[in-house]
Amino acid sequence: MSDEQNGLVLKDVYRVFPGDVTAVADVNLHVENGEYVVFLGPSGCGKTTTLRMIGGHDDPSSGTITIDGELMNGVSPAERPITTVFQHYALFPHKSVLQNVAFGLKMQGVDKAERETQAKAAIDLVGLTKMMDRKPRELSGGQQQRVALARVLVTRPKAILLDEPLGDLDRLLQMKMRVELRALQRELGITFIHVTHNQEEALSMADRIVVMGDAVIQQVGTPEELARHPRNEFVAKFMGDNNVFHGTISGTNGGNVVIDTPHGKIEVKGTGTAGQPGSMSIRANAVQVSTDAVPDVNGVKVRLDFAEYLGDSVKLHLDLAGQPFLAKVPEERYTEIRAYEGKDVTATWAIEDGHLLEQ
Ligand SMILES: Nc1ncnc2c1ncn2[C@@H]1O[C@H](COP(=O)(O)OP(=O)(O)OP(=O)(O)O)[C@@H](O)[C@H]1O
Ligand SMILES: [Mg+2]
Predict the structure, then answer these.
(1) Which of 98, 163, 249, 355 could disulfide-link to 278, CB 3.0 to 4.6 Å?
(2) Does the beta carbon of 40 lie inside 6 Å of ligand 1?
(3) Would you call 81 helix, strand, or coil by DSSP?
(4) Quick one: which atom of ligand 1 is closest to the CA of 24?
């Protein structure tokens, strides 16, 4: 069996809805067994549609989905070795936690004693043993979320699909559940595929992130790869805190290309052809801010609009000839830098920190 056959494989997957709405296009993806993969992208980019096709709640218009080499197209959700936890997980309000979790097994015809044993084990995994006899309304949002998870775990799927699982929770609970979900996934060793539009959530939880935009996969990579090496402008902008410059390539210099932009010359690692358009991105935390003179290359004059104190760093909201520009500096510089609010400063960055983008 080739590597490609293990885990979940989406090959040339499209989903076109009536009225010629292409919700998902040209999706090719291989998720290894045991990976925590997060689908990240703005509203309407095709995340839920992709998850529904993986879970069997919808089928591709073309292309194939396989799990451990077995073709899943046309296979019902119940027959797939994979279970979905929907955004609005409907728990039975009049049933206890234990009954809610055991319900799926009842449907499968498992006898009562066995149901209880398995349900209790799943409830224990999500840390709700003490609350087994409560009704859903007697639980917090996060606890209800865990019941929904236990209900899925009890069926022992190879993979769990979660659509915006933390969307309805308050921020503090979200942070807590991120850690809990991740720990649970590690403990179980099964594949989790999690959909969100929250960058921070994706970065903090995923082994790999699949960035979707306009129905297609824009980039797949580890959180670090995406943060440091966004492939294109969409990813650079969506991952946040990246500044993007556009211009025309004027030549090369060693292993660098020189891009002429309306804001000056920028040198960045990579190759290109003179006369062609060139774009690059630079992360806010790689930008240095000073009162030095603006250098000939890789530097711009900006006005400091606002220094935002973030506790461990200071985010500088800068104005580059009418465009927003971001820098992040260590927290220790807050007092010194605040004094420049409303004034011009110089932003510079090292060649190695810039990143050439695909056109
Ligand atoms: N049953 C359907 N019929 C027609 N169009 C649909 C259908 N379901 C989804 N769409 C369209 O497909 C596109 C992708 O929808 P999808 O629900 O996958 O987005 P999403 O990335 O999950 O967005 P969100 O973050 O808002 O949940 C949207 O333009 C949506 O309007
Ligand atoms: Mg959705």
Answers:
(1) 249
(2) no
(3) coil
(4) 14
Indicate whether 141 and 189 sit together in one domain. yes
Q: Identify whether residues 223 and 101 lie together within a single domain.
A: yes
pLDDT higher than threshold 80 for residue 133: yes
CA of 86 to the centre of ligand 1 (A): 15
Identify whether residues 161 and 279 lie together within a single domain.
no
Residues 143 and 279 in one domain: no
What is the CATH classification number for the domain harbouring 206?
Answer: 3.40.50.300
For residues 105 and 200, membership in a common domain is answered with: yes
Check whether residue 55 and residue 177 sit in a common domain.
yes
Q: Which tens digits make up the pLDDT trace of 38-89?
A: 999 999 999 999 999 999 999 999 999 999 999 999 999 989 999 888 766 6
* 214 located within any domain: yes
**What residues does the ion ligand 2 have nearby, CB within 5 Å?**
48
Tracing tokens 């067994």 back to the chain, one arrives at 33
Same domain? 207 vs 255: no
pTM of the model: 0.87
Q: What is the pLDDT of residues 89-112, one digit of tens each?
A: 678 999 999 999 999 888 888 999
* Model pLDDT for residues 335-359, shown as the tens digit of each residue: 999 999 999 999 999 999 999 999 8
Residue type, 340: Y
Mutate to test the pocket of ligand 1, among 20, 21, 196, 217 (most ligand atoms within 8 A of CB): 21
How far is the C-alpha of 34 from the C-alpha of 357, rounded, in Å? 31
Residue 142 in any domain: the answer is yes
Quick one: CA torsion of 217, 219, 220, 226, rounded to 10 degrees?
-150
Strand, helix or coil at 291? Answer: coil
For 259, the token pair is: 């891009």
284-323 pLDDT, tens digit per residue, is 999 999 999 999 999 999 999 999 999 999 999 999 999 9
Count of structural domains within the chain: 2
Cα 285 → chain centroid: 20
Q: Residue 53 C-alpha to ligand 2 middle, in angstroms?
A: 13
| Boundaries of domain holding 293 | 241-357
Tell me the angle at which helices 112-125 and 171-188 cross, rounded to the nearest 10 degrees: 120
Average pLDDT, the chain: 92
Token pair of 356 as six digits: 């050439």
How far does residue 97's CA lie from ligand 2's centre (Å)?
Answer: 27
